[in-house]
Each structure stands twice: as C-alpha cells, then as structure tokens.
Amino acid sequence: MAAVPFAASVRHRPNVAIVDLHGDIDATSEDVLNAAYAEASSQNPAAILLNFGDVQYIESTGIALIVTLLAQARKSRRRLLVYGLSEHYRRIFHITRLADFMSMFPDEMSALATVPTS
C-alpha cells in the first residue's frame, strides 16, 4: 500500500491554534510537521490542537516526531491537545504514555471547550 503524502494546515482561534493533519505521518513528514508547529505557535497560543481526523497511518518515526512537538510545547509551557485519533492510535498513545502528557478528545468542540478564550 502506497503512503499517503503528508500535509498540514493551521487555523487560529482565540488562544489556540489548530493544526489539521492529512495523510501518513512518517520520517518524510518532519519538515512539514515542524513548519506547521512553528506557524501554530507564532501567535503564542495557550494551546495547540492537533487534528488527526485525516491521518490513517503513523509509523514509529511519526510517533517520535509527535514526541518532539510535545517537548517543544512543554518547553514553552503550552498545552498540546489532540483529537480525531482512531481507536488504534488512541491505544498507541496510551501504551507510549503520550496520553499522560497531552489531552485527547473525541472532537474539536470538546477540545476547544477546555481552552480559555482570554
């Protein structure tokens, strides 16, 4: 099965940036993912929300890239939130303990409800 090319886009809301992820997250995703994170953090939001709703596959290198984003967020004292993970990847996030350091939500609305607007 051929990999689905990775892309990311950023939406800004009051006090939160939403990064919409598309495609497969693997070693080739690093530059795009880092650029999206840099754009998301450019307005100094309290939280960055990663939307995995259009991600079908995350390889182990992709998990490592997400760990790197988590480290950047923690260094900046910024919350990293996620939603749209499949059941399989929710289990992976729990097994790898990523879920201990980022909040996981079933949808965007419930995630945004946890971020103060001021």
Can you write the helix and strand succession as a string?
EEHEHEHEH
Average pLDDT metric:
94
- Count every beta strand, where a strand is a DSSP E run of 2 or more residues: 5
Count of helical regions? 4
Strand order of the largest sheet: 1-2-3-4-5
Shape: globular
Biggest beta-sheet profile: 5 strands, mixed
Class of secondary structure makeup: alpha/beta
Distance between the termini: 45 Å
Radius of gyration: 13 Å
Helicity level: 25-40%
Weakly predicted, low-confidence segments = none
Strand content: 25-35%
Characterise this structure:
The structure is a single chain. This protein has four helices and five strands; from the N terminus they run E-E-H-E-H-E-H-E-H. It has a five-stranded mixed β-sheet. With about 120 residues, it is an alpha/beta fold. The chain is globular, with a radius of gyration of 13 Å. Strand 1 and strand 2 form a beta hairpin. It has helices at about 30-40, 60-75, 85-95, 110, and strands at about 5-15, 15-20, 45-55, 80-85, 105. It is about 35% helix and about 25% strand.
